[in-house]
UniProtKB/TrEMBL annotation:
Residues 1-60 form the RRM domain. It is found in: Nucleus. InterPro entries: Nucleotide-bd_a/b_plait_sf, RBD_domain_sf, RRM_dom, SF3B6_RRM. One of its GO terms (molecular function) is RNA binding. This is RRM domain-containing protein. Its main location: nucleus. It comes from the Eukaryota. It holds the Pfam family RRM_1.
Length: 87
């Protein structure tokens, strides 16, 4: 992976998924955001060992969105219990 992604800039780290849920995924962290953009633009759709790469930017706000939804649902459930509302 360093050979493929390293062509686009200095890499800080590569983390490869090692559980059944994350198998086939990896996070590549570049030192420079412009290198990350360049790699994303050039490597998305690139064929490696008969598999095509899907390269995406990490978006922290999406990672926390699910947590926010769960928290809001808990608040709604508490209010339903408080006011005796059943659905």
């Amino acid at each position: 992976m360093y050979d493929i992604f390293g062509k686009y800039g200095a890499i800080r780290q590569i983390r490869v998924g090692n559980t059944p849920e994350t198998r086939g995924t990896a996070f590549v962290v570049y030192e420079d955001i412009f290198d990350a953009k360049n790699a994303c633009d050039h490597l998305s759709g690139f064929n490696v060992c008969n598999r095509y790469l899907v390269v995406l930017y990490y978006q922290a706000n999406k990672a926390f969105k699910k947590t926010d939804i769960e928290k809001k649902q808990e608040e709604i459930d508490k209010m339903k219990t408080k006011y005796g509302i059943n659905t």
